[in-house]
Amino acid sequence: MTRTIGAFLVAVIGTYILGVFFIGQGNLANVADMGLTVEFSDRIATLIHDLTHMTAIYLPLVTVSSIIAFSVAAGIIHYTPNMRRVGYVSAGFVALIALHLIMKITLGLTGVAPTRTLMGLIAQGAAGAFGGYLFHILTQKKTSQV
Question: Residue 33: which domain range?
């Protein structure tokens, strides 16, 4: 149980970091499209700022969506254990896509500007898939080598 909780925390943090990275870079791409110069130092500063300032809203949303997705995946994987990797990666992907689509449908707003585009939405899904992969790797049963 402790290993599962630890793996979940690592997966959520991994999803959060990659998701925040994609959000910041998507926003900076829009700035660059307006003709402004975006330096590498701006990209690093944006990443650091976003990582430290999105914890109050984005991190809890990632956590809740991951809890739901990984729980559903675990139930399905119980009956199809050979699909474990695909199950958790898909669950992470769907969790982040669903998070943004549900916010749009229920609140009528796009909470994260880059998710207004298909590429931005898929990038968020990729961040979730990364978290799902981390969870899969970290919760695998160890096989003994003889």
Answer: 2-139
